[in-house]
Amino acid sequence: MDFFESQLISQFVADNFYWLFLGILVLNLTQRKHQKTAQKKRLATLYLAVAALVLYSAGQLVLNYEVGDIYLLLVLVIVVGVIMRFRDRVFPFTLRCVQSGKRLDMHSILYRDSNTLPEFDEPEPESEPEQDPQP
After folding, report:
1. Which long-range contacts (CB under 8 A, 24 or more apart) does 54-57 make?
2. pTM for the model
């Protein structure tokens, strides 16, 4: 079996990446409830869903046109390159609080752009309009 004619990787991608794509979209929809605190992370999951869709589509095309996995690997290299170029936008998720270093819970990891524990987020003080002193 020649590697350039094999379709094992494409078959795996075509079978499983559709479900990965749907799972990422469901996560993105759950982040919609937290739009004020998780806008960056919501966009990041959308970028990841697009990457999974591109890989799934490439896997399907390789199977439909009966070409080798080398074309899927080429698309994979391109997708990984784009993700690495924009990794700050695609992977804003951290496991530890940026202020205390404690481990974050799943809610903070997925739904809080600040990557801090809730007790470290202080509400912004409302500035009162300055009043000119009366002479």
Report:
1. 54/79, 55/13, 55/17, 55/79, 56/13, 56/14, 56/17, 56/18, 56/20, 56/21
2. 0.81
